[in-house]
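Need the bound structure for D-MYO-inositol-1-phosphate, inputs here:
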Amino acid sequence: MTSPDRTVATVDLDHLCSLARTLGRQAADLVKAGRTAAVVDIDTKSDPTDVVTAMDRACEALLRERLAELRPGDGVHGEEHTESEGRTGVRWIIDPIDGTVNYLYGLENYSISIAVEVDGDLVVGVVTKPATGEQFHAVRGGGAFLDDWPIGCSAPTDLSLTLLATGFGYLPSRRAAQGAVVGALLAEVRDIRRMGSAALDLCNVAAGRVDAYYEWGTHIWDWAAGAVICREAGVDVRLPEDDEGLVVACAPSVSSALNDAIRSRIKPEWQVPH
Ligand code: IPD
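Answer from helper R.:
Posting the output first, comments after.
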């Protein structure tokens, strides 16, 4: 529920970003320290390959507890728990561990993703990588940063010179469709990267570490924070209206070519949401 006289302009976005950065660091410490216990305590979700560790749940619980203390009345939408309705117009969108399979296997490419929406607009994004301590952040209109350094996206001159990141869902039927699309694109781009954390893939586009990222089948907690960071880094970001729809984040110089190449390969019978 939103109050009629409050708009995004009356909310202190820098304060929310600073809080998200502090919470991201606290969550990173918890998750990094708890990896050994987490690997012996796992459960599965949509498919036997779709795992949730005890640490995913503990991390989201920590973030929810801290937000309940510090921001009572805000909504919280996280991957591992049901939505908490808010009454302030501010909603926190949390992925406690994005890249859970990497985390499970002891690979370093996993992250904590925290975004803030005000009255439905994404305004703050913070993505923290516990293994290295790197933290990406952005406030709408204020630029994008890796730790304290401003970042910006790349400018490849052609699709054939584009380093393209992507990801795959957990359901076998979706993976088959995603494999068909990436197989076709492989001949048209510089190369493909599948690194296992959508939030970090988006941050890598923002920092020019790859030129583009696309995936469908993800949820808002996977991409919300990374999308704010990408937009502030000058990336052309196309977000879906519906959950699990296609996300494309691309350096503007090749964005229309890449969007055409991806969208022309998606078959209607796959029913990818818009
Ligand atoms: C997954 C990662 C992965 C992406 C999957 C996501 P999770 O998130 O972001 O890179 O390809 O689609 O589900 O399950 O580790 O939070």
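Comments: The chain has two domains: 13-151, 159-265. Residues 79, 95, 98-100, 167-169, 196-198, 215, 217-218, 222 surround D-MYO-inositol-1-phosphate (CB under 6 Å).
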